[in-house]
Description:
Blueprint: E1 2-5, E2 16-19, E3 29-39, H1 41-48, H2 55-58, E4 71-79, E5 91-95, E6 106-110, E7 117-119, H3 129-133, H4 137-142, E8 151-152, H5 154-165, E9 172-175, E10 185-186, E11 196-199, E12 212-217, H6 224-227, E13 231-239, H7 244-256, E14 261-264, H8 272-287, E15 295-300, H9 304-312, E16 319-323
Amino acid sequence: MRIAVYERYGPPEVLHLQEAAEPTIDASEVLVRVEASTVGPSDSAGRSGTPRFARLFFGLTKPKHPVLGSDFAGVVERVGSDVTRFAPGDRVFGTLAPSMGAHAELVVIAEDDRSRTSPQGSTPQGRSRRSTGSSPHCPSSAISPGWRPARSCSSTGRPARWARRRCSSRSTSVRRSSACAAPRTHRSSPRSGADRVIDYTREDFTEARGAYDVIFDAVGKRSFGAARRALAPHGIYLTTVPSAAIMVQWPLTRWFSHGRRAAIAFTGLRDIRLKAAELALLVELIDAGAFVPVVDRVVPFDDIADAHRRVDTGHKAGSVVVAMAPAASASSPAPSPKPVAA
Length: 342
């Protein structure tokens, strides 16, 4: 099988594909042939070694996770002798988080680790295989915090907006939108999941003093300091992107603030029961037609460095999907998968 590896920190060019031995499985494990994965900010940080404190996880002086990637979608290739939940040919998607290794043509998952793998058995037939690959990263970042109104954007923001609808709340999305033509703000389409959209090229959402119970910065574009005055008196600023500032603000505001607070969501480290519930919720949303993954672009596995370059720009709009198999076409519907209970 092929894997994408790197031996030193640096630009996207440090990545290269190489052959590796096919992994073996024990009696309770499942071997999945990966058709699609994603490249996200955590992969970019792991590859570049920046910000510097990211090396506490990825390796102080050199990478200790030679194969990046957490999300995957594909087909069960082989199962162990004790496995009953999956069978060869079943379509599955999931996440390896907090581990890495999905940027490979084959991955191994334990059958009983329901926080990491969910069957695609009930997903609509017309759903793209590549879109499936963009799904797992979203719920673990977006569904975990409990909130009401939120500022959301990107591949993480969209499922966040669908999640808040389950709480009968209202959300505002901040993004650059070609749909924002004449008015400075407008009502979003039902498929976007937001009640209101602000075009950040025309309006600064932070000027709305005390307007939001939660500001969820999914891509690390605005700091807690910049967004603080837009929070309600006991509001919270949430981000999935680590920075030196947020690592200091998080404990300080949690322990000493009686008002506005800052927090970062290390979702991959959360309780496995919560992550399992989130995967089940994702399947529910997809079945209902309430959530369709947003794909910024699809990059062939051979060009995975290009996927990292796109993420490094900080301007991706949705998931950057890596297609391991040529058959995993965004325009080719996946065959009807075998239903498997999640």
